[in-house]
Amino acid sequence: MEDDCEPEQSSWAHLPDVCLRHIFHWLDDRDRSQAALVCKKWSWAMYSGSLWRRRTITFYGRQSRPRTLEFQSALWYVKKFGKYLEHLEIKLSNPSNTAFTQKFQVTTRSLLSHLGKCNSRLVSLTIQYLELDRLIWKNTVRARFIKNLATFLKRMSKQLDYLNLKGARVTLGEGCELLNSLSCLTNKSFVSEINLEDFFSLHLPVYNSTLFHQTMSKFHSLVILTFNYNCISDELLDILQEHNAHSLCTLNIKCHIRDPHEQVVLGMSWANLAKRAPKLNVNFFFERVMKHDHLARILLVEIPVRSISLRSCYFSNPDWTMKPTLTNLLPAYWHVLQKLTLELNNGHEVLDDELLQLVLTSKRLLFLKVWAFLSVTFIERLLQNRAERKCIMTTIKVRIYTALPESSEEDQLLRNIYRKFKYLIDSELNYFVITYPLV
User: Fold this and answer.
1) DSSP code of 407?
2) Is 414 within 8 Å of 379 (Cβ atoms)?
């Protein structure tokens, strides 16, 4: 009996370090701490730097005892393992009142202060949805938080490669202060990726700010830049062309109905940037910006557009006529467009023929996602063209809106279509099509 147990004990005792670290990787902090008590070898594994390179810290607005402990565990982690940290994400979940934001500010001050002193590896920082323009942020608390974050970014500026401050909603001065912190030591920043989506407060015409242009001119190695259309101007495109053409690959641009988006941007500015940055792809995300004249002012033919997303967010407006956009505007990108997302409440117009023609015209289109009022036969026609190799799509995701609460007849037709094209769907497509009552 004893002899039978020895091999099992021996195998655990001599488990290779790489295997032990892999096991520890799947444990949470509490389980790791308990496992570290087993023996010295397991305790050493607990302090392996590879286990602590990535960290997501979530602060919950709705307080409970376990969630209150999150503030304490965040500081415990940083003090104990902060020196190993390479990728840090801080999340706020439902911040509810001024007491919470004040506690969050005090905690992050300690957290960032300690990290700034002990860490020399951090390359990625994400702090999303701060929503600093909400009333739950007192002016003094908000100012302290921005000052602490700016100080931390200044300390990390030489090593930080990725910064995501999506949803911060700061003023123009505050935003430029934070961004300037990345370049204050050398007057240049070599961060390769920045996410500034909803970084500035709503309604700000950032595009005409000299301060913003001066700030962006300090970035010299951008590969991916995500921001709102209210930042776009000829001056910004010229700055990107001058300082980042050698590296720039992707611009992700969000255009929301509440953001200023009626500024005039010259096609020549886009053409010059595209010429100097041959690897550039531009992805547009429109939310409730659906009028053809507004879209035509933004979607210029000189832009190397790879992806377009048009979302009405269930809102409906008779002025949002999509036919001109589908027939006159989007076909201009037939040679570059690879991904198309349409979420439309188009109960007032039928778009089946126009959408199908756009798909067949777009020779590089690989991804199609549509939520709209369509006929079921549209899916059959789309698959028939795909089977005949008239298009090259690999992903088809469609939600067919219906005005009736009961859609059993349409569901049966979709099942028949699936059976007809089963081999094509199963072997070549990422395919998901359903009906959805929208009443």
Assistant:
1) -
2) yes
